[in-house]
């Protein structure tokens, strides 16, 4: 009996413990699955893994958790690498002075740098993956891309766009025979074209300036050659005109050479030295005394406020003053007055050339420093100017780190001033 009771209790306890163990095992497996599932979800979602992942799991569970952790780490370093790669590509694209757009084979914009967004006026947010047919406003650029994507050949175009000149190239991309879309490169060539136009205009101007005296010289010489019996006085009169025209040509060549020299010389202050502006002004006034006397112009010097010494390029300052005084005498009628003065304003120096001449109308004031610009071409050419004097003045004053300005009133006169900052030296 007691044996049977013992067996019964034994069977009951055995069944009870088996049932408990089975339930625990089921519960542990369920929890392990849940932990692994959550870790996988975090992995997929790009989130950080739980630091204690797998610690409470049985051996196999810990192995799976370790695998998840390793996958997570490789994924992280891959992401980091691709982020760095992207940042590098972005930096290169944004650092480019040209605009660049990358399109897929369907014509959708996949990439565009800041310059391209600016030049093509792409809508700030909406351009990504948009089709070029909808995003671009300009018909010429659209047809360029259409042709490139269709013919799979490079297409180039230069077009005017809002007062700017744009150069565009659409290039098809291919990799091992597979169509990879195209890139569009844009360049703002406005200043380059302006430079080229300016250069062409300059060459045309120079040719014109040379042709006029040359034609006159040829005409005069022809007259002399074809009339052997010409009276001596008449011949001398004609030859004097030839001489004057030849002098004009020489002046033109000298001014052109000087302009070229100024433009090609380095901007450094290597030519600077200490000198007295008073002495310099004295030389300039004496040099022009004969010309002034010839026209009964009173040429005077005001140097009471001039500093004793300045540090600058003496030859350049002399050239500027000579050009300004020469103009002042040329454009002042007989009996007028020309004054050259200089004063210090702290460390800055200001020269002024004031005349009581014909003056300059307001519409010309901003242009007289351009090469060959004349307010009255026929009259000033007749007066012997090359049309380059003020262009030389402007370039030289820029080289000196200064600036030149003009105030003028028609019929009253003009005052040209040259400011040279930081040139005045303190008296010892
Ligand atoms: P130019 O050799 O013809 O004098 P510049 O470059 O020296 O050439 O001067 C350009 C133009 O500016 C002149 O043609 C003239 O019309 C005007 N100009 C320059 N200086 C004066 C001045 N002091 N008074 C009136 N007009 C002037």
Topology:
Elements: H1 2-44, H2 59-95, E1 99-103, E2 109-112, H3 114-120, H4 132-135, H5 139-151, E3 155-161, E4 164-175, E5 178-188, H6 190-225, H7 232-264, E6 273-275, H8 277-294, E7 298-302, E8 310-312, H9 314-330, E9 337-345, E10 348-355, H10 362-365, H11 377-382, H12 389-399, E11 403-409, E12 413-420
Parallel strand pairs: 7-9
Antiparallel strand pairs: 1-2, 1-5, 3-4, 4-5, 6-8, 9-10, 10-12, 11-12
This protein binds adenosine-5'-diphosphate (ADP).
Describe the structure.
The protein has 428 residues and is an alpha+beta fold. It has 4 domains: 12-90, no CATH class; 96-188, Beta-Lactamase; 190-264, Helix Hairpins (Orthogonal Bundle), CATH 1.10.287.130; 267-428, Heat Shock Protein 90 (2-Layer Sandwich). It is 54% helix and 19% strand. The protein has 12 helices and 12 strands. Strands 2-1-5-4-3 form a 5-stranded antiparallel beta sheet, with helices on both faces. A 5-stranded mixed beta sheet has the order 7-9-10-12-11, with helices on one face. The mean pLDDT is 89.
């Amino acid at each position: 009996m007691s044996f049977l009771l013992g067996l019964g209790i034994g069977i009951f306890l055995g069944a009870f413990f088996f049932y408990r163990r089975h339930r625990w095992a089921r519960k542990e497996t369920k929890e392990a699955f849940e932990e692994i599932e959550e870790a996988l979800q975090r992995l997929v979602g790009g989130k950080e893994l739980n630091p204690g992942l797998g610690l409470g799991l049985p051996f196999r569970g810990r192995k799976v958790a370790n695998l998840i952790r390793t996958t997570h780490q490789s994924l992280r370093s891959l992401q980091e690498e691709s982020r760095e790669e992207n940042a590098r590509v972005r930096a290169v694209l944004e650092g480019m002075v040209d605009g660049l757009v990358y399109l897929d084979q369907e014509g959708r914009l996949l990439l565009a740098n800041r310059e391209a967004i600016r030049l093509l006026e792409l809508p700030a947010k909406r351009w990504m993956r948009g089709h070029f047919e909808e995003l671009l406003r300009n018909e010429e650029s659209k047809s360029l891309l259409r042709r490139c994507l269709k013919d799979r050949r490079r297409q180039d175009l230069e077009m005017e766009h809002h007062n700017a000149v744009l150069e565009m190239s659409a290039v098809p991309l291919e990799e091992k025979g597979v169509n990879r879309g195209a890139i569009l490169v844009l360049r703002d060539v406005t200043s380059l074209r302006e430079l080229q136009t300016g250069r062409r205009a300059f060459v045309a101007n120079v040719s014109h300036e040379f042709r006029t005296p040359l034609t006159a010289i040829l005409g005069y010489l022809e007259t002399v050659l074809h009339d052997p019996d010409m009276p001596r006085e008449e011949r001398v009169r004609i030859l004097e005109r030839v001489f004057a025209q030849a002098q004009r040509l020489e002046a033109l060549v000298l001014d052109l050479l000087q302009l070229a020299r100024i433009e090609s010389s380095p901007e450094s202050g290597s030519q600077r030295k200490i000198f007295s502006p008073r002495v310099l002004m004295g030389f300039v006034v004496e040099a022009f005394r004969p010309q002034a006397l010839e026209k009964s112009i009173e040429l005077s010097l005001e140097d009471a406020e001039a500093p004793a010494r300045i540090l600058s390029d003496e030859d350049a300052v002399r050239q500027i003053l000579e050009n300004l005084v020469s103009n002042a005498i040329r454009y002042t009628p007989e009996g007028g007055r020309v004054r050259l003065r200089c004063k210090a304003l702290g460390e800055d120096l200001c020269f002024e050339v004031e005349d009581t001449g014909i003056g300059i109308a307001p519409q010309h004031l901003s242009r007289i420093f351009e090469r060959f610009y004349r307010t009255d071409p026929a009259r000033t050419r007749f007066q012997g100017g090359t049309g380059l004097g003020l262009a030389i003045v402007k370039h030289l004053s820029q080289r000196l780190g200064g600036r030149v300005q003009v105030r003028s009133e028609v019929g009253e006169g003009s005052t040209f001033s040259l400011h040279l900052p930081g040139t005045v030296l303190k008296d010892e």
